[in-house]
Design a protein that fits this description.
This protein has 143 residues and is an alpha/beta fold. It contains 3 helices and 7 strands; from the N terminus they run H-E-E-E-E-H-E-H-E-E. Strand 3 and strand 4 form a beta hairpin.
C-alpha cells in the first residue's frame, strides 16, 4: 500500500508584529528615561589679604555663585539666563520675600566685573542689607 505524503507547508514566522512591539518598547524607554546631569559651577575665588572670617550662621541663607563666564547659580540652582531679571526672580523665589537673610556672592577671580555688579544690583533692588563677598585667604608671601 502506497500512502500519499502531504506536501509540506513552508512555515513562515511573521516578524512585522514583533518588530512593531520592539519599537514601541524602545520608544517607551527613551521617553520615560530621565537623564540626570549634575550641574555645578567651578569657581576659583579671588584672594584677599585683609579678609575676616565669617562666623557660621544658623538658618537659611542665600548663595549667589558666578562662574568665570558670568553664569549665575543661586543656592546651587543654575539659572537658564544670565541677566538681571532672571537673577532677581531667582533671588525673590529662594528668599521667599525675606530680605533680612544674609546674601553671599562668590565670584570666580576671572569673572567679568559687570556680572558681579549685576548680582549686587539685583540684591540692592530687592532690599537685601546683609551682603557678603566671598574670597579665599591669600597664601603667605603673596603680595
Amino acid at each position: 500500500m502506497k500512502f500519499r505524503r502531504k506536501p509540506r507547508e513552508t512555515v513562515d514566522i511573521n516578524l512585522a508584529s514583533l518588530i512593531d512591539v520592539v519599537f514601541i518598547l524602545l520608544l517607551f524607554f527613551v521617553v520615560t528615561t530621565t537623564f540626570t546631569r549634575e550641574t555645578q559651577l567651578r569657581v576659583e575665588l579671588p584672594e584677599a589679604a585683609s579678609a575676616t572670617a565669617a562666623e557660621p550662621e544658623q538658618g537659611k541663607r542665600l548663595d549667589v555663585t558666578i562662574s568665570a563666564e558670568g553664569v549665575y547659580s543661586v543656592n546651587d540652582h543654575l539659572l537658564p539666563k544670565s541677566d538681571l531679571a532672571t537673577l532677581t526672580e531667582a533671588l525673590q523665589r529662594e528668599s521667599g520675600g525675606d530680605t533680612t537673610l544674609p546674601l553671599s556672592i562668590s565670584a570666580d577671580g576671572k569673572t567679568p566685573h559687570q556680572a558681579v555688579v549685576t548680582a549686587m544690583d539685583a540684591a540692592g533692588k530687592l532690599g537685601f542689607s546683609q551682603l557678603r563677598m566671598t574670597t579665599v585667604e591669600a597664601a603667605q608671601g603673596t603680595p
